[in-house]
User: Fold these one by one.
Assistant:
Number 1:
Amino acid sequence: MSMEDENLSKLRWRCRRGMRELDSAMRAYLDNHYLAAPAEERALFVELQEMQDPELFRLISGKAREARYQHIIDKMSDAMAGRS
């Protein structure tokens, strides 16, 4: 297994949040955008994975906004809506 494959496996595992909406959003980004993303965006996605579920849900649901993550949140929404 290559280092990138191993990294993707770890990221995929960390996308399992225990809340269906979060699982879907995180996997949508990982599956549709992560590999093509620049290094800075990838690092921000890892930061999102480190957030506690309530905080992450507020961002994904649009109840909270944080400018540095908004591009990724928008990509999650697009991927979930089939617009990726």
Note: The mean pLDDT is 93.
Number 2:
Amino acid sequence: MQLSLLQQAIASVYPSFTGMTFGSWEGVLLNFNEICRGGSTLVLDEFPYLVKACPSLPSTLQRLIDSRILKFNLIICGSSQRMMQKMVLDASEPLYGRADERLNLQPIPVRYWKEEFQLSATQVVEEYSVWGGVPRYWELRERESSFEDALDNLLLDPNGLLYDEPLTLFFDEDGKGSLYTSIMNALGAGNRQYSRLASAVGKKTTELSVPLKNLGEMSFIAKEVPFGESEKKSKKTLYRIADPFMDFYYHFVSPNKSLLAIGRNGRVKDIIRNQFNTYVGDYWELFCRTAVSGNELEGHNWMMAKRWWGTVLNEKGEQEQVEFDVVAESDDKKYLLIGECKWQKPDYAERLLAELKRKSLLVPFIGKHKVIYALFLKNKPIDEVDAPVFLPDDVLPYC
């Protein structure tokens, strides 16, 4: 069936292919090679499904590519990330080392959605925190009259097009869809440390290394360590859901499916409404760190910005949990930028700055650095302050 459909597609461009029949991939590809114009391009989409029907297809392509007789360009693509990576990057696979170019399509950055949908900077931060950068989700969102309607009809309705989207994405991945789902549910519930994550999914820590690595390679999760610490050596490593759509889903939809199934959508919407600013605040922090990283602000070029968190002794000699939303070192190692991010109603900037300065005196990494303090706020502050203040319109162009 696949060979017949490909023959018809080729015949629409090369009429001499009309009526021809082929019993193998090698036959159709060699015949196409004979009649096609040099430099033509053949695209085989959803390649893993083709391989599932014909496991010898990668070996066939290997022989043809190695023979160097092909005068057309060949593109293979597929939405099953793990299978595509395995076919091209695994040294035991026939196509290993045969690719001239690899394209891993990333989510479209937040700044472009602002331009495309003519949203305010505040609106796009909130909506991107739900839909992420995948065009399909925004395409569905565009069909709805409002953000609230989109949530109701796409995510909170058991018949909604995105209601089971993560299950569909994980269905094709190595047969481990249920384990991946358990990990994502655990992360959505706040189990971000390795040991707590293993306990939440009922696995030994040694059993999680491979699925966590796979989820990371698929860009569904990411590791995070405090500023100044090595990702390989740090004992403070946290995991987070990296894709905004998946994050929202496992924060609000998956844990409340029982309520949604019996029509208690109003209750679930109340839960979302009560927690939404806190949820979006995490992405606001991420956007602010992205805006600082590798850019020039306040007369200095900054390296990668990160969070910092830890336990310190405060002015009273008591242990205190301290966190900084944005910490970055200048290229010349002389300056530190320390920032506070707030996604809430207008506040007093002087109070926020005073608290930021107080906490900075307690941490060990300041050293001999000169410190530049910055506030990243959803709304213009109530008062004036002697420090740079960045609002969504200032941040998004750099994200």
Note: The longest strand covers residues 319-329.
Number 3:
Amino acid sequence: MLSVLCLSPAIDTTISLPKFPRPGDVIKGANETAHVGGKGLNVARWLALRGERVRLAGLLGADNAAPFEEELSQAGIEDALTRVPGAARINIMFTSPCGMFKMNRPAFPGLDASAFPAEHFAEKLLGRTASAPDAFLLSGSLPATFPADFYAQLIALLQRLGPIVLDTAGKALHHGAEACPALIKPNRAECAELLGFSLQTEADFLRAISRLLTRTPLVILSDGANGCWFAARETNGEAHAIYRVDSPLVPVVDTTGAGDTLLAEFCYRYFARHSGLTAETMAHAVAAGALATTRPGALPPDPEAVDRLAREVAPVRMDAHAG
């Protein structure tokens, strides 16, 4: 069993344009698709598709809850979401043959956060089972009214009960990383913001990973089409195991949810199946993330296709002492 938190659910809409617009253009012939999502829900959906038992806690707007409830029911995800007044946000991804851009709205901007302390969601993530989940996955941005250290508060409450995975950005990542979760997964831009320097060269990535490993024993640092870095503290607490995994070439349709699928596949193998930081675990995670970009919105790829593509992915051990 894995428990996932989603405080910012969304309906992800993808609009495919025949050309990239210029000022004054009237676009005709665009195709539009919409699917329920949000980072936590994307993670939970992939875990369920892999056959893992999943509990999804967090917030859900009562005004447009129906499509989310239908998705959770069909996927077999345990619904532990708290209904709140209002509607879940709608995000829009515009794609064209020469580029793409995304519009993300804030989640529940008028929500009274004082009604939802960290203890509330800790209870929801634990549920009614006798034992704690294999891991707690905290994914996505915080609603605007939530304190920036909310994830840090939640980590403090849950840490003794099981490993905690944190995937967020900005101040929430800064505070959350200081609380020492078991795993953090920033992307290149989020890592640069957290550490205060840009990541341009291989040496920059190695330096950044070494810094991150002082806060958490396990790091995933994603770099879009360039692939991903995985790192773990060695048992002596000084040396590090650092791997770079190049992303396989695939026809990109929409990048929404790619990082979520990568993280979910990794957690499925590392925490639920207790596989460790193996070449197979890393290869499958990168393959899942790559194939997620071939689908519109956050629609998950075919798990069997992920298994096939993973055979073509080869992690490379990097210099463990750089930076």
Note: The mean pLDDT is 92.
Number 4:
Amino acid sequence: MIVEALIYDAFSKVPGKGNPAGDILSGNKLSDEQMQRIAKELSFNETAFVVQDNNTNLSIRYFTPGHEVPMCGHATIATMYAFAENGIIKNGFTTIQTGSGKLDIEILFDECIRIGMKQIAYKEMEYLGEADSLAKIIGVESYMIDDRYPIRYVNTGLWTLPVPIKKLSYFNNMCPHTKAFPKVLRELNTSSIHPFCTETYDEKCELHGRHFSSPYSGTVEDAVTGTASGAMGCYYEK
């Protein structure tokens, strides 16, 4: 079987920047095993598979190279862009079904194709582990963690753990020890980790962050993330 895979760099107008995602618009033809094999071969952080489309009920499944996940922000944006670019979806609103629930999507055609995505309701969970252990698995020292802010798991589609960091310079040498994540993240051992700080390179930005993948995903880091950024926005406001 020959399967066409579209590749999009989400959140950037520059090829090779942003966060790359694979898009398979013919997911209905594939078994779970085939989807997983394709995602592993493409080797992006996520590949999206459209499994149902009757113009009113669009369903998407998401696979990392290691396993299926219920939701992925950048791959959703990429899929909606693919539909808009190929004339399958026009201006206006639509709803998609994901493993995390139904999401409202807005598509606008003006100077470019613009995609807006509403994420699921924000929720959080307490992190009960030690800050020292958490610091070690992302490659920093415990004194670099900013204790002005709480360490809590957050979710607007996928669980991630924001880790407040005192200085922007501390990000440069971060090196995640991904295999050790489950031993430290005992409450949610499939969670990703999202170190952030309020010092930024761009004065227009409120936060700077990196995003280290779930230990079961088969990847190490996202260049930029949609779902975690949504959760971080809620965390920041709260």
Note: The chain has five helices and 15 strands.
